[in-house]
Design goal:
The protein contains 12 helices and 16 strands. With 536 residues, the chain is α/β, with parallel strands linked by helices. A 10-stranded mixed beta sheet has the order 6-5-4-3-9-1-10-11-2-12, sandwiched between helices. The chain starts with a helix and ends in a 24-residue tail after the last helix. Residues 40-399 form the Sulfatase N-terminal domain.
Length: 536
């Protein structure tokens, strides 16, 4: 991986450098390196912990999502779509680099060093698009590069970046600060927002005194902050920044990576909207639904903005979640296969497991894309995943030479071209010691490198109840071989063949070398719920 990234990083920097040199002495409005408007704009909306059946078009019955439903209907819906991981950071890393968790830089949310990040040598899709003349923007939750590291978005190919750079602070919806490129933007009105209360509330059926308060109009009541009337809900700022970026760059090709922090828990929303009257549903589920509906409403605003600018038909819009099912934002249950469906929203989908697992429930996601006049409405039943987006976006931008990734371009589905490569390719997943492979109709899983392999015909056995490893030994051997060959050793992450003691030694080494990374906690709370005593 190192040689690949170093060579390509140098090549990209050369392209960008030549682009800069070519503009010397040229009138500003000529912009010779800018692509013509034949190159489509690309907007990617990635939702945080969005569950498989959170959209009404996917089967949600308790509320409607008309704008996202319409996009899905008029585009390509991938019915067997996967994230690259069952958790946030590695999934986002795979989107940016096109690499799965056996090859990528960020492999779980935390390494032995802490919340790890992309390096300068990593190649992101933003850098590739920027080298081709695209204006690039990240807005929302980044999670793969803390402030003051080389992994921040403005050092990874984004002309403009705004939001939460670190992973955990994005749990805060009323932050004391956000980042705009390399500048800290403070929100003094939000001072005092109580994240300890929100984490305590992040359980099934919390006591009433821990619930958020809303008035008769469904508006959030925030009595604890310094200035309740001027408190700033971060998602509102993200929406404004996204619209400003489109307005500024509507005359040139742009890439907008809109990484909403919704509906990740602890659940809270500035307004319950039409869910305020749904007293038949518990409050936490109403909040989750309102968060989902806020994404839908803003999607409608985006579409109207693009149409008013006359660029809707030249814009590819992609929507997905970053990982699988999270029950109304409750804390995860690891690789536990028995993670029950939400009794009210019924949004998990027909899968075993949930967030933080590499079972189907942790990695199966809603995923669709549309391009007015270029994509015929269809449902694709072949397995695809988020690492495919690197190659897809590159091909859409007519970029011929791109680094090798673990994905394939989805553009052939647009053009009714040959898609046989998707029939039998291997999709590799890992989380600490656990590994999984999806290949053709099969899904294989093992808890660690010494554990017996489980094998399922996943298209007909989505709950993984009928282990066929003994019935199809040749398939089991093939899957084990893929697992053994797909995982490059990581210096700081927990490799599948390592023990807990090995990982603890890595943590010790990181401290001895001064390479342990600081923990950034939301709104300066003392300790996160999953931290041990003494970790703060």
């Amino acid at each position: 991986m190192k040689n690949r990234t170093v060579i390509w990083k140098g090549f990209l920097m050369l392209l960008i450098g030549l682009s800069f040199c070519n503009t010397k002495g040229v009138a500003e409005n000529e912009k010779p390196n800018k692509k013509s408007k034949k190159s489509p704009n690309i907007i990617y909306i990635i939702a945080d912990d969005f569950s498989y059946k959170d959209l009404s078009i996917y089967g949600q019955k308790q509320y409607k999502t008309p704008n996202l439903d319409q996009l899905c209907k008029q585009g390509i819906r991938f019915s067997q779509a996967y994230s690259a991981s069952g958790e946030c950071a590695p999934s986002r890393s795979s989107v940016m680099t096109g690499l799965h968790t056996g090859h990528g830089r960020v492999r779980v949310n935390s390494s032995a060093r802490g919340q790890d990040h992309l390096l300068d040598s990593d190649i992101t899709v933003a850098e590739v698009l920027k080298s081709a003349g695209y204006a690039t923007a990240f807005i929302g939750k980044w999670g793969i590069g803390q402030p003051q590291t080389e992994g921040v978005p403005y050092k990874q190919g984004f002309d403009y970046s705004f939001g939460y750079y670190d992973q955990v602070r994005a749990h805060t919806f009323f932050p004391d600060y956000l980042w705009e490129n390399d500048k800290k933007i403070t929100y003094p009105a939000n001072a005092g927002f109580d994240m300890n209360k929100r984490y305590a509330n992040n359980i099934p059926n919390p006591p009433k005194e821990l619930l958020n308060s809303y008035d008769e109009q469904g508006k959030l009541i925030l009595e604890e902050v310094a200035d309740p009337q001027n408190a700033v809900f971060s998602e509102a700022v993200f929406e404004e920044k996204a619209l400003n970026f489109i307005d500024k760059h509507s005359e040139e090709p742009f890439f907008l990576y809109y990484a909403t922090q919704l509906p990740h828990g602890p659940v809270i929303i500035d307004s319950l909207g039409n869910m305020k009257d749904r007293v038949d549903i518990p409050q936490k589920q109403r909040e989750w639904a309102a968060m989902v509906q806020r994404i839908d409403t803003f999607t409608g605003t985006l579409i109207e903005t693009l149409k008013k600018k006359g660029i809707y038909e030249n814009t590819v819009i992609v929507f997905s979640s970053d990982n699988g099912y999270s029950m109304a934002g409750y804390m995860g249950r690891g690789n536990a296969p028995k993670w029950e469906d939400d009794p009210w929203l019924k949004n998990k989908g027909p899968f075993t497991g949930g967030k933080f697992s590499i079972f189907e429930g942790g990695c199966r996601i809603p995923f669709f894309m549309t391009w007015e006049g270029h994509i015929q409405p269809s449902i694709v039943q072949k397995a695809v995943w988020l690492p495919d987006l690197f190659s897809t976006f590159s091909e859409l931008a007519n970029i011929k030479e791109v680094p090798k990734t673990d994905g394939n371009s989805l553009v052939p589905f647009f053009k009714n071209e040959n898609t046989d490569i998707f029939n039998d390719r291997a999709l590799y997943f890992s989380r600490q010691r656990a590994q999984a492979v999806r290949k053709g109709p099969w899904k294989a899983f093992r808890a660690d490198s010494d554990a017996p392999l489980e094998l399922y015909l996943v298209e007909e056995d989505t709950y993984n109840e009928n282990n066929l490893a003994k019935d199809y030994p040749e398939v089991a051997i093939e899957m084990e071989t893929i697992m053994n060959e797909s995982h490059e050793p990581s210096e700081w992450y927990w490799n599948p063949w390592e023990t807990r003691k090995d990982f603890e030694e890595k943590k010790k080494k990181a401290k001895e070398l001064g390479q342990d990374l600081p923990t950034i906690r939301p709104n300066n709370i003392d300790r996160l719920p999953w931290e041990k005593k003494g970790d703060s």
